[in-house]
Write a structure and sequence with these properties.
This protein is α/β, with parallel strands linked by helices. Helices cover 44% and strands 16% of the residues. It has one domain: Rossmann fold, CATH 3.40.50. Helix 8 links the parallel strand 6 and strand 7. Bound molecules: guanosine-5'-triphosphate and magnesium ion (MG).
C-alpha cells in the first residue's frame, strides 16, 4: 500500500504538494501536543486519551470511574455537536469542558489548547481527553496525552482490531466494553486479544461490563500503575 501511494506521489506533483502540507500540519500539531504535555507535566497531571468508534462506552466508563477512581480527575470532551457528554460528566460532580469540532472527525492539539485556560490544573491529578468517536482519524493526531486508552465494544465485532490497526498500534490498553453482550454476539475474546497483541506486543486487554462494573477495578489498577510510572518519570 505504501508503495502504491509513493508511486502515485512521484507521478503527480499536485499530490506531492498535498503530502507536504499534511506533513507540515502534523508536525505543527506534534509541537503543540508537546507543549500541552509539558503543561500537564508542570502540574504533575497524568493525561489519558480515550479513543474508539462512536458509542463504544467511553463516557459511560468515565461515569463509572467517577464513583471509584482514587484520584481527582477532570475531563476534556470532544464531539462534533452538543455538550451532552460534558453534561453527563458534570452530573457526576466532575469538572468537564466540551470541545465541539463541527465537521472534524477528531480532536487535535490546537483544539485541546482551547480548553487549557479553563482547566483546573491545581485541583486534579489526572486528565482524561475523550476523543471524537471514530476508529480512524483520532489515531493520527497527538493531543498531548501521556497514554492512550482504546475501546472496542462487543457488538462491533472482534475483527475491528485487525481492520483498524493504526488506532490499536497506539493503544497502551485495549478495553473490550459491553462484555454483558458476549452471549448474544460471535465475539471471540481470544482472537481479539491475539490481534491486539500482534499490533502492540504486550498490550493489556481488559473486558469491561459497564452494567455490573466487572473489569472496572482492573482498569483502575492500570490507571494507577501508569500514574505512578508517569510520576517516576517526572522524578517525584
Ligand atoms: N450493555 C452495555 N451497554 C453499555 C456498556 N457501556 C456502555 N453502554 C451503552 O452504550 C451506549 C453508548 O455509550 P457511551 O458511553 O455514550 O459511548 P461513547 O463511546 O461515549 O460514545 P460517543 O461519545 O458518542 O463516541 C449507551 O447507551 C451506554 O449505556 C456496557 O458495558 N454494556
Ligand atoms: Mg461519549
Amino acid at each position: 500500500m505504501a508503495e502504491i501511494i509513493n508511486e502515485d506521489i512521484k507521478n503527480n506533483p499536485q499530490l506531492s504538494h498535498k503530502v507536504t502540507v499534511i506533513e507540515k500540519i502534523l508536525s505543527k500539531n506534534n509541537k503543540m501536543a508537546d507543549e500541552i504535555r509539558e503543561e500537564f507535566n508542570k502540574h504533575k497531571i497524568t493525561c489519558f486519551n480515550m479513543m474508539s468508534s462512536p458509542g463504544s462506552g467511553k463516557t459511560t466508563t468515565l461515569e463509572n470511574l467517577a464513583d471509584k477512581l482514587p484520584y481527582k480527575f477532570a475531563v476534556i470532551e470532544g464531539d462534533l455537536e452538543t455538550s451532552r457528554d460534558a453534561e453527563r460528566i458534570r452530573k457526576k460532580g466532575i469538572w468537564s469542558f466540551q470541545l465541539q469540532t463541527g465537521r472534524a472527525c477528531h480532536l487535535d492539539a490546537g483544539m485541546v489548547k482551547h480548553a487549557l485556560p479553563h482547566f483546573p490544573f491545581d485541583e486534579v491529578e489526572i486528565a482524561f481527553i475523550e476523543n471524537v468517536g471514530n476508529l480512524v482519524c483520532p489515531a493520527s493526531y497527538d493531543v498531548g496525552a501521556h497514554y492512550n486508552m482504546v475501546f472496542v465494544s462487543v457488538p462491533e465485532g472482534d475483527d475491528k482490531i485487525e481492520k483498524y490497526p493504526v488506532m490499536f498500534r497506539k493503544a497502551d490498553i485495549v478495553i473490550i466494553t459491553k462484555a454483558d453482550m458476549l452471549e448474544f454476539f460471535d465475539f471471540d475474546v481470544n482472537r481479539a486479544k491475539e490481534a491486539a497483541n500482534k499490533l502492540k506486543p504486550g498490550v493489556p486487554v481488559v473486558l469491561l461490563n459497564n452494567k455490573t462494573k466487572e473489569g472496572l477495578d482492573e482498569i483502575i489498577d492500570w490507571i494507577s500503575e501508569k500514574r505512578k510510572e508517569h510520576l517516576k518519570k517526572l522524578g517525584g
